[in-house]
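Table 4 source record.
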Amino acid sequence: MGFFEEISHNYGPETTKELKLWSTNNRKLAAALNRRIFLLEFKRQGLIPKHITSNVKSIMGLFEYNNQRLNRKIREFNDSTSKKIINLELCQVNHKIKRLELLNTQIRQSLQHLPEYMLIQYQDRLKCSFNKEFHKIKMTNLKKINNLKTTSIPNVTTQDRWIKNLSDKEIPNTVKSLLSLGSKFSVTTTKKDINIDRIIADTEYILEAIPDGRKNVQRAKVTNAVTNYIHRPKEENSLIQKWYKDTKWFLKENNNLIILNSDKGAVTVVMNEKMYNEKIQSILESKDFKRLPRDPTQTLQTKCNKYIDKLGELKYITKEQMKQMKTYNSVAPRIYGNPKVHKDGYPMRPIISSINSPMNSLSKFIADIQMKTAYDEENQYYVKDTFHFATTVNIFKLPENYTLISLDVINLFGNLDKNDIIEVLKQKWDIIKEHTNINMELFMEIILFILNNNYCVFKEKYYLQIFGCAMGSKLSPRLAQYVMDHLNGYPRSLVSRIFHTSTPMVTPSCPPDSDGADKKYNKLIYIPGLSQRLIKVMRNSSSIIVSYYNKTVRKLFSQLKDRDPDYRQSGLVYRVNCKDCTGTYIGQTRQYFGTRIKQHQSDCMKQSNTTALAQHAMSEGHQFDFDDAKILTRENNWFKRVETTNWWMRNF
């Protein structure tokens, strides 16, 4: 006699029916729980199950894809519909699980008349069958997910030659795939990546151009759009997002690796930090550099400002130019390098970043005179860029018995002799003087001052470049062109145009409006589902809003330049806590952070009534913890910095 026959004989057929129903529900519950895990995993990985895509595809067949704007709406509708179907299916599965669990509980209560040992034995049997069924369905679902992931991968094409591993560390395939996409490859921005204070500062800056009568209405629409975006359901992770997370985790675990761009070929290079530092250090210890005993930034900043004052006193520049050119928060130029992976031994090309350095504005001023006005760009040998060169070569026919050759100069900027530069410029002075009212003596003095003070910082040590020009200075490409033109045996401008052409980046502009005013360009971070709405709300006739990607693979690249210490950073929002109460002062400054903190300390000592911090200290007799002052964020634009400060004051 079988188990169920015995139950029917001893306890009646209704009891057997209840036990069989319990077993059936158990199998259904295993399938439902697996189904929920299956759908949640699809959501987590940003995938859409085939049973949904095939059914939605039949709906998409109703539309004609012949309009770009309409096509975008159709794609958005497709994505939105697919995600909503997954959510609805999850709701249905959750409801089914609750119903099955409730039925099983009711069945268990209805079987109380059975002996306890018999119920325990039967439950053990159900547990075994549940686990067996659950595992069977789980393996089937995993196979479906992996198959769909495999078919999704070809959408992102990568090649092994796009990445060069010079380290001794084996790189996982997902990490290699992401890094090989290059530093400029953009990854979808998620809610976790968004800084609300930055969005508010950018939108308020754009809203300034809107008439006051419409400003509050537009601000309310912007607030509504941002709020709806923040409170929408969590985004699904795409394959690229998973690669990005894997890469971020891998680099965090292996912080001795350096990720950087190659010198040429747009190859991503992975190398050990020790190897990178040794290559840069070998450059700095060569005969072209010498170690400085201390940081010369403040001294050079003062000298540069004196030259600017002199140019202003002699009426060579306007007061407005003086104000723009002077600097009070300079930082030392920072050296870094890109490896030449196409050469044996992977030598490093040194680059000195002169952004916000003491001589940056003065170098740009001299370079503009030499290149934008004095230098002849209309000669027949001029090559603007590689596209211009390709166009020229495509229509060029090489005569018989002629051979086309390409020449190169090894370390062009580093091999420019200062005396040769001055001599060449003196010979060209008749041309240069037609484009500037500065006398030759002062002009040459400023150039020599710049050339003699090419310095940089690496690992908090300072070095002076004693030979050649700095790679990264705005002046170096201009001087190189003059020197190369002067080479004997070659036509004027030919050599320099072929060897090295560096044209200044021009800010895009649009045709003037009918009233003659140029339109203003504003930027806004691209956030899928939000940026389009904000741009539509804030669009007006006097400005153009462009989106930019903020989350790129470059975010994972190593910080090669020396980071400025906090006290030398400027253009920032900061906070200082009160030691004697819960009060916190939020402030902003364009000065050095250290200088601003010292001003606060001085105000408190003198009991000056200049800031809310000093007023609090004076009226309450409290002290502030200046040693623990923190930078909250950085922003060079004054208006945006003030708006960011206001946001922090409301939300700190």
